[in-house]
Structures are given as structure tokens and as C-alpha cells.
Amino acid sequence: MKTSWRSASLVASAAVVLALTTACGQETTPPASSQNVGATAAPGDYGNIGTGADGAAGSTGGQQSSASPSAPAAAPAGKLAVSTNAEVGKVVTDSLGLTLYRFDQDTAEPPKSNCDGDCAKTWPPVPADDATAGEGIDKALLGSITRADGTKQLTIDGWPAYRYAKDVNAGDIKGQGVGGKWYALAPDGKKAQGGAEAAGELPGLSTRNDPKLGEIVIDKNGHTVYRFMKDSQWPMKTECTGACLDKWPVVAPVDAKDTEGIDLQGSTPNRGYVVFDRPDGIKQQSIDCIPIYTFAGDKKPGDTNGQGVGGTWFAIRPDGKPVGASEK
């Protein structure tokens, strides 16, 4: 795709800077069609699935039609139990000890699944028909939705429940954090992540003190945020496109009010916290005009597996500086 370049007008007011999407001299090519905004999951793991048709609103634990293609038959859930994982805490398992998951692109109010087709093959919906609450499970939180094929899918506090095809043994939790959108279900229906992440208390972007890297930026799921040293700050330009985004999903736009500890002004007047209109049509958040990403290889909060990859990927500080690398 050919791209064109332009430098947007710079203004002195920091308040205006926050509202601009072209303050960093971005490259822009209007997309041919609407694009999904946000992280892109690794192929086959379906972290970015299109939504189905809306069903009738219902209360948590109630039923609702989900307009999705037929999903493959899944094994009965049986008596649900609670298992404690050393890394993420308490998780819900089925009668065989397999971990149950939830999907960030689903909704709990009203309960609705947005995983169908090939997604439902990788993440089989958990049948609701025979599911019962075992010790540590509040039966009042159990409900169901009716999928397009007529099957009923289990919900926990409104969240549709799934298994992960790559979990083959009791206690496996290989689906945790996949695509930055799939998480094991805690007994209360929240994400099994531990700490503030599990309670949904983290802002869209904030910081944490890593024992090795120091203060670094994290996203709303507690995942480390990175920058790519081949990207350009001025004019703003990305070198991570196509297959690169499978491993390095972009950080979707985050409202400035939904941040904590992030430098919103930037190192130079009028260059700060703005949204990057990528040439592929995806909108990406930046810090000090640096496009930011997460890493598909980070499976849980606190992971920093992307640090130093290829000598070009580094965790980012709240002022946009890379950790462990010098800027040219």
C-alpha cells in the first residue's frame, strides 16, 4: 500500500494536544473500510473476533440468544470446582479439572458471546445443561446463554465460559492471557490474575516497578507495554505491520483520563499523548509520539519476555524512553 506523509499543525495548548490525532506528523492513508481497533492476537488464538448480532438484554445468570454460527460439540462440564494456580490464584475448572476461560470481547451485561466459527473450535463453549456448582462455587452465579445452534453455554456471573483446545491435562492453563483477551475464570466471574488486575482496578495505562527494569508502563490487564526502536517519533511512523502485529499487538487508544503515572505532555511542547492513525487503518496509542505495543509472548501480568527481543523491542517508561536502550 502506498502511503503519504503530512505534518499536522502544532498548538501550544497541552489541552488541545490531547485532542489531536495528528500532532506528531503522522503518516496517514484513509482505510478502505472500517478496522478493528485494538490488539491483534496470535493466529489461531482469536484475540480479535468480530461481534455477532445483539440479543435481547437479560439479567446476569439469565438466558439470551447469541447469533453465532454453530460451534462444535463440547464435553459436558459436570460438577465445577475451584483450583488454585500458583501464578494466577483461584480458577474454575470442570469435572475433569480443565480450566474455564472468559473472553474480553464478550459481555456480561447482558450475557453475550462473541466467539463463534473457528474461534469456537479453539475455544469450545462450555455446555450449561449439566453444569453444577461444586465447593467454592456460588450456584447463584451460574447461568446460560442460548447459542445460534440451540445449545446452551454456561455463564459465570454473566460471562460465557470456554475451554482452551491446547489445555489437555487437568491443571493446564495455557490459555491464560492469550491475545491479551483470554483469561481463566475466577470463582466470582472475574479474571483470574490476582491483585488489582483481577478486580478490574487498573487504569487503561499505568506503571509498575519491575524488580529488574524499574518503572515501566503496563496496560489495563497488567501486561508490559513496549516500543519498537525502528519506529519513528517524528514524523510518527511505524515499521511494525502485517505479520509483525501478530506478535506485537498495538495498544488501542486510551483516554488520557484513564491513565495513571503517564507523561501526557511529552519531551517537546505540543508532542505528547496522542493517537497514531496508522496507514493500515488501525488506531494506536502513543506516549511522547512513540507508538506502543504489547507482546503476545507475555502470558500473564508481570511478564517481560519481550524485553530486548531482536535488539529492537524494549519496555517503555512513562516518559516514552526505552528501558535498556539508547535513542538515536
Characterize the largest beta sheet: strand count, sense, and whether it forms a barrel.
4 strands, mixed
User: How many E-type strands?
Assistant: 20
SS-based structural class?
A: mainly beta
Number of domains: 2
The percentage of residues in β strands lies in 15-25%
Enumerate the strands of the largest sheet in spatial order, edge to edge or round the barrel.
3-10-11-12
Globally, the shape reads elongated
Q: Helix count, per DSSP?
A: 4
Rounded radius of gyration (Å): 21 Å
**Regions with little confidence, pLDDT below 50 for 5+ residues:** 1-22, 27-44, 49-72
Alpha-carbon distance between the two ends: 28 Å
Whole-number average pLDDT? 79
> Helical residue percent?
under 10%
> What string, H for helix and E for strand, traces the elements in order?
EHEEEEEEEHEEEEEHEEEHEEEE
Descriptive overview:
The protein has 328 residues and is mostly beta strands. It has 2 domains: 1-30 and 202-328, no CATH class; 65-198, no CATH class. Helices cover 6% and strands 22% of the residues. The chain has 4 helices and 20 strands. It has helices at 14-19, 118-122, 195-198, 244-247; strands spanning 4-5, 27-28, 65-66, 79-85, 89-93, 101-103, 107-108, 111-112, 132-133, 142-147, 152-156, 159-160, 182-184, 205-210, 214-219, 226-228, 275-277, 283-287, 290-291, 313-315. Strands 3-10-11-12 form a 4-stranded mixed sheet, with no helix packed on it. A 3-stranded mixed sheet has the order 5-4-9, with no helix packed on it. Strands 17-18-19 form a 3-stranded antiparallel sheet, with no helix packed on it. Strand 10 and strand 11 (152-156) form a beta hairpin. It starts with a strand and ends in a 13-residue tail after the last strand.
